[in-house]
Amino acid sequence: MTAQVMYQTILTKQENEIFYITINREQKLNALNIQTLTDIKNAVLSVYEDGNVRGVIITGAGPKAFAAGADIEEFSNFSVEEGTRLSAEGHAVLKAIDHCPKPIIAAVNGFALGGGNELAMSCHIRVASENAKFGQPEVNLGITPGYAGTQRLAQLIGKGRALELLMTGESINATEAHRLGLVNHVVSADQLITKCEEILNKIKTKSPLAISSVIRCVNAYYEKRVDGNDVEINEFGNFFGSEDFKEGTQAFLTKRPAKFMGK
Ligand code: COA
């Protein structure tokens, strides 16, 4: 059993090999201040090597918000240096999510604006409740997104659609987010966590080695300094030395369910 760590701004729990992170600043619509970013990063990093965790769900406390953005009050008087540091740290936190070897699902339970939408986009999969709202309203504040919103939104929904959302600052509802490909599924609020658990429970039956490899290969496509095809060739080849591959193929050939050990 993994030791429980106490965080200041998030709640965590672990059940059935799933690690749950709940951003716990409901009065501030779960706005992401620096402490929250630090807590999320530390919580996510803690599951990287944790053999008891097979997947992560990130959500926001309360019925209204996943996260309504970076904490505007906190950064309103920042200098150029502080702003640059904040953006760099935001990028680092969301990269820790994106590169996590375990699947991370954003359970978007309300407003996902600015940094909230950027946080959701850094997760591998997004499931939205019907009341969710998405947007990058930074231009209303006289600023641009700072946690890779310009990059990941264009990757997820295409350049033209991303530019429209980024330049108008308008929010879209869950149905529209689904239509644009920003979210994978839309469900009622009471089914939100169940739907995320269903997806992770399916993934849990697969080889952990294969799952982390899929994440690495897909991420490689978006990295400018590596060739994703080379990464895939290398990853694929390495499986022929793994026990999971032997188990998966033997299970198929002898018509029994596979039991993967992640080795
Ligand atoms: N940063 C800091 N505080 C925030 C916040 C943010 N991004 N978003 C909401 N809050 C705070 C509000 O200031 C308010 O605090 P208060 O009760 O101490 O005054 C509390 O959360 C509730 O928000 P409120 O605006 O009263 O709720 P609402 O239902 O009327 O509006 C939103 C909801 C999301 C439309 C509105 O809060 C909003 O526009 N938030 C900012 C979104 C944004 O620009 N994000 C990008 C930041 S870079």
SSE topology sketch:
Blueprint: E1 10-15, E2 18-23, H1 34-48, E3 55-60, E4 65-67, H2 72-75, H3 80-98, E5 104-108, E6 111-113, H4 115-122, E7 125-129, E8 133-135, H5 149-157, H6 159-168, E9 172-173, H7 174-180, E10 185-187, H8 192-204, H9 208-221, H10 228-239, H11 243-253
Parallel strand pairs: 2-3, 3-5, 4-6, 5-7, 6-8, 7-10
Antiparallel strand pairs: 1-2, 8-9
Helix pairs in contact: 1-3, 3-4, 4-5, 5-6, 9-10
The structure holds coenzyme A (COA).
Task: Summarize the structure in words.
- By secondary structure, the chain is of the alpha/beta class.
- The chain has helices at residues 34-48, 72-75, 80-98, 115-122, 149-157, 159-168, 174-180, 192-204, 208-221, 228-239, 243-253; strands at 10-15, 18-23, 55-60, 65-67, 104-108, 111-113, 125-129, 133-135, 172-173, 185-187.
- Residues 28-29, 31, 68-73, 111, 113-115, 137-138, 141 line the site of coenzyme A.
Observed structural traits:
263 residues; alpha/beta; 2 domains; six-stranded mixed β-sheet; 10 strands; globular; binds coenzyme A
Structural class comes to alpha/beta
Question: Strand order, biggest sheet?
Answer: 1-2-3-5-7-10
Taking Cα atoms only, what radius of gyration do you get, to the nearest Å? Answer: 19 Å
Work out the count of structural domains: 2
Tell me the helix content: 40-55%
Heteromolecules bound: coenzyme A
Quote the CATH topology of the largest domain. Answer: 2-enoyl-CoA Hydratase, Chain A, domain 1
Biggest β-sheet strands, sense, barrel: 6 strands, mixed
Mean of all residue-level pLDDT scores: 97
